[in-house]
Amino acid sequence: MTAAIALKSVGKTYLTRDAEVEAIRRVDAEIAQGEFVSVLGPSGCGKSTLLMMIAGLEAPSHGEILIEGRAVTGPRRENGLIFQDATLLPWKTALENVLFPIRMMRRPVAAYEERARTLLRQVGLSGFEDKRPHELSGGMRQRVAICRALIHDPRLLLMDEPFSALDAITRDEMNETLVDIWEREHKTGVFVTHSIREAVFLSDRVLVMTGRPSTIALDLRVPFPRPRRPEIQETAEFGRLCGTLRATIEAGYGRRREAA
Amino acid sequence: MSATAEELREAARAAGALRARRARRAAFAKTVLLPIATALSVIGFWEWAVAAWRVPAVILPPPSEVAGVLVRAWPLLSQHAVPTTLEAVGGFTLATLCGVLLATLLVASSWIRAALYPNVVFFQLIPKIALAPLFIVWLGIGSESRLAFSLFVSFFPVVIATATGLANVPADMVRLCRSLAASDWQIFLSVRFPYALPYIFSGMKIAITFSIIGVVVGEFITAQAGLGYLILFASSKAETGLILAAIAVLCAVGLALFGLVGLAERLVLRRFGPDGGR
C-alpha cells in the first residue's frame, strides 16, 4: 500500500537578511494511511515549516514530498489545516466558519450544512452554532476550527500546535475531543507539538526533530490500543515513553550546543 | 418572625442593583455632563468677559449676538451651506472610492506597492493646502477645482488606513484560504476586505474632516458661494458676527457629516466588526 505521506530527504534553507539559514537538513519518513503521527521538537526546530511543506504552502529546497504517491507541487484541497490560533472570521457565526472552506471551494454550502451541525455536535458545541467567535471561549473557538478542518472530509489533517495557546485544563479536554473525533473520522494526521505528553497520548507514532538544522532523531511507536482512554496517562508505560522522548530532545539540544 | 434566607438574598440583590445604577449615573455625569458643562461655562465666560471689558463687537461679539445673527441671517447661511456641504460630500465620496481602489492595488502587487507606496507616504507629508492655487489654475474657478482639491486632501488617509487594514489579516487565515486553493480575488472579497473595514472607517472619519477643510480652502481662494466665501465676504465688511455664525454653521455641518460616517461605521461593524461592534 502506498504511504499516505512520504518525505524523501526533504530539506529547507531560508534566505534571511544576511545569511542562508538551514532550517531542516534532511528528513526521511513515511506515514501510513490512517496513521496519527506527531512531530515533536523544541521551538524553532522547523517542525511547522515541515508541516507547511506537506500542506503544499511552502516548497522544499531539496528532496521531495509524495502524498499517496504523487509529488506535492502546491496546495491540495484534500488537506484540512488547524493552526495554533483558531483564525476564525470574527464576523461569522460558528456554523458559517465551519462552512467557510466549502464557500472557498465554491461548492454548494447548503449540502454541507447538516455535516457542519453534526461535527459541531460531536465536539460538544450544539446550541452554539449561531454564536460569533467573540462569544466563545478559546477552547470552543479551537473546536470550531477542528470542525472547519474536517468539513470537506479531507484525507489529511495537518495540525500546527493547535492547543498550545490554551490553558492546561482546556488542553486536556481538547486532546480527548481530538482522540474521539479521530477514532470516528479515520484520517491521516500530522500533529506538530512541543508537548511530550500530548504527543504520546494522541499518536500512533512520534517523530522527534532536533534543533536547527533539524533531522529526525527518533521515530517512536506508541503501542497503546484505540480507543484511547485518558487513564493511559497514569500508566508506567506512558511515563516511560515520555522519558525516552524527553531524553532524545535533551540529547539533540546537547549536540547542537557542542556544534555551536 | 425572622426573614428567610431567600428574602435576605433578594434584599442583597436589590441593594447590588441599586449600587450598580448609582455607579452608572455617576459615570454618565462624568463622561457626558461634565464636558458639556465645561463648554457652557466657556461660552458664559465669553459673554461676561466681552461685556465686562467692553470689547467692541467688531473684534469679538458676545455669543448672544452671534446667536442673533445665526437666526436673522439663517436664509443666507443655509443657502451658502448647501454648496459647501455638497462639495465636501462629493470630495469625500470620491476620496473613499479612489483611496480604497488604490490601496487594493498596493496590496495586490508587490511591484505596484514598491513603485507607489513610498510616494504616497511622501505626498502625505506635503503641506497640501499650498497646492490649492494649482488646482484653480488647472480646473478653473468652478466647483470642479474645489471638488478635486477636496478629493486630493482627503484621499491619503483613506489609502494608508485601507492598505494597513488589507495587509493586517492574520497570516494563518491567508494560509488557510491558499490551502483551499482559493483565488486572490476570493481571499480579497471574503477575508481581506471585511477585515479591513474598521481601518477603512477610521480613514474615512479623517477624510470627511479633511474634505471640508479642502472645500473651504478652495472657497477662500475663489468662489461665488459657499460658507468659506461667506466668511471671506463678511470679513471684508468687518461683520464679525456673520463670520462667527458661518463658522458655527460650518462646525454643525462638519459634526453632522462626521456623525453620519460614525453611524455608518457602527451599522457596518455591527455586522463585520471583531466583536459585533460592541
Structure description:
The complex is a heterodimer of chains A (260) and B (278). Chain A is 36% helix and 25% strand. Chain A has eight helices and ten strands. Chain A has helices at 47-54, 94-98, 100-104, 110-122, 138-150, 168-185, 196-202, 236-259, and strands at residues 5-15, 20-31, 36-40, 62-67, 70-71, 79-82, 156-160, 188-193, 205-209, 214-221. In chain A, helix 6 links the parallel strand 7 (156-160) and strand 8. In chain A, helix 5 packs parallel to helix 6 (168-185) and helix 7 (196-202) packs across helix 8 (236-259). Chain A is globular, with a radius of gyration of 18 Å. The model of chain A has no long low-confidence stretch (mean pLDDT 89). Chain B is mainly alpha-helical and 278 residues long. Chain B has two domains: 1-54; 63-272, MetI-like fold (Orthogonal Bundle). Helix content of chain B is 83%, strand content 0%. Chain B is flat, with a radius of gyration of 26 Å. The model of chain B has no long low-confidence stretch (mean pLDDT 91). The chains are: A alpha/beta (260), B mainly alpha (278).
